[in-house]
Amino acid sequence: MTKKALITGITGQDGFHLAELLLSKNYEVVGMVNRQREELGNSLRKDLPEVIQVRGDLADSTSLNGVIAETMPDEIYNLGAISFVGLSFKQPELTSNITGLGVLRMLEAIRSADPERKIRFYQASSSEMFGKVRETPQNENTPFHPRSPYGVSKVFAHHACVNYREAYGMHVSCGILFNHEGERRGHEFVTRKITSTIAQIVLGISDKLVLGNIEAKRDWGYAGDYVEAMWLMLQQEIPDDYVIATGETYSVKDFIETAFNLVNIQDGIERYVKQDPQFMRPSEVDLLVGDSSKAKRILNWTPKVGFKELVKRMLINDLQLQAKIHQIDLQDVKQIINLIDQ
Ligand code: F7E
After folding, report:
1. Which of 150, 179, 254, 288 for mutating ligand 1's site (highest number of atoms within 8 Å of CB)?
2. Which has the closest alpha carbon to 3: 234, 298, 300?
3. Which atom of ligand 1 approaches the CA of 127 most closely?
4. Which end of the chain is more exposed for a tag (fewer CB within 10 A), N or C?
């Protein structure tokens, strides 16, 4: 029988990768889109026309009740959130409402629509919950110490999920995902900002890369690998929480250096990187590195794309994209791409 999945945050990076994965497994995929993301919904319609789009908003419980009652999916993946940590400092209430309370609204909507507890629910928890880390590497038992309104909201949502699982016997699993990037990453996130700007520098369109704190270290994986873990979690009979990470950590500076090296630019940091306090955060997460051995043991999940390969993919994609936007002959760019791809 065809399974039906409902994805919130379908217009984001993970929504795309997950929808693609589920469609390849013959799921019927329903994506929830809110009014602000309608334009992105239209472009998703071109990329993945098989996805059925429904209107709904994590800020509005009436709409969530309606979407769940109408679709009655087998699986729900809650990827919708205000997910940019920097913005969460400027809009803490909005972030708490969507990223935190939105999850509670979702859980309540499922609880009343599905008394038989058939629906399986995935919550996108985040390594940002570890914040000022209490131990390294971080695993499922590491205490949380969030450092941003985003992290605080994710902790609230995570605890709400555990509580609904324990209190009402709901099939709720949380993936504590470390940073995951790729060709579809939003331009506000640091990896995409770096690869798209370096692509512009290579093509002579830009001459500086303006950033905040480049000493921060992250455990960076590939988004396409991470959505597989989400799906695996919901295939388990027993719901649980899992850390999803590569187990390797690199600084923002390492990411920049790797990207400059790939395009053969020497002293790229000294020549092009400028610091601007507007990109610094009032409180920073200095170091993240995850221990995903539980996911390996129980889900048989391991990441496939390593750090250098991730930078390569993002850089090649941005070179092609920038060439297209600025009407630069792709043949000229091919030489640089071949260099990166060696
Ligand atoms: O920042 C530093 C910044 O915004 C990474 C989200 O998906 O992963 C992501 O959160 C680091 C931070 O991601 C700039 O201060 C320096 O230390 O790319 P990011 P994030 O904050 O780690 C987690 C797992 C999530 O759950 C989130 O939703 O880079 N940094 N200069 C900068 N960051 C940005 N964005 N822009 C800069 O110019």
Report:
1. 179
2. 234
3. 24
4. N
Rounded CA-CA distance 52/31 in Å is 6
- CATH assignment at residue 129: 3.40.50.720
Q: Indicate which residues carry an active-site annotation.
A: 126, 128, 150
> Is any atom of ligand 1 closer than 6 Å to the C-beta of 253?
no
Structural domain containing residue 255: 190-218+249-287+305-341
SS3 66: helix
Q: Are residues 9 and 43 in the same domain?
A: yes
Is 258 within the bounds of a domain?
yes
pTM higher than 0.85, yes or no? yes
Atom from ligand 1 closest to the CA of residue 213: 16
189 residue type, one letter? F
Q: What is the CATH number of the domain that holds 205?
A: 3.90.25.10
What are 136-177's pLDDT values in tens digits?
999 999 999 999 999 999 999 999 999 999 999 999 999 999
